[in-house]
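Figure 3 (text version): structure tokens given as input.
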């Protein structure tokens, strides 16, 4: 049971995902216009992926969101 305990952790509760969501929420609040809309869309996609609990889907959505947030921070 101890070996399988990691399966009980929701992907949303993993540190890397928590940090990315917080970063996205911060940038969403700081953004306006189309940039804000795009961040909102990507945050929703990432949350949907987290809820799916599918590792490949989560990884793809995390990569997309992280790249867009990085681009937004550089603007």
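Below: residues designed for each position.
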């Amino acid at each position: 049971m101890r070996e399988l305990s990691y399966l009980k952790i929701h992907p949303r509760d993993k540190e890397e995902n928590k940090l990315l969501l917080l970063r996205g929420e911060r940038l969403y609040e700081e953004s306006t216009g189309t940039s804000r809309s795009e961040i909102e869309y990507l945050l929703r996609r990432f949350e949907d992926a987290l809820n799916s609990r599918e590792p490949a889907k989560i990884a793809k959505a995390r990569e997309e969101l992280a790249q867009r947030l990085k681009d937004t921070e550089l603007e």
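The CA atoms of residues 5 and 20 lie 24 Å apart.
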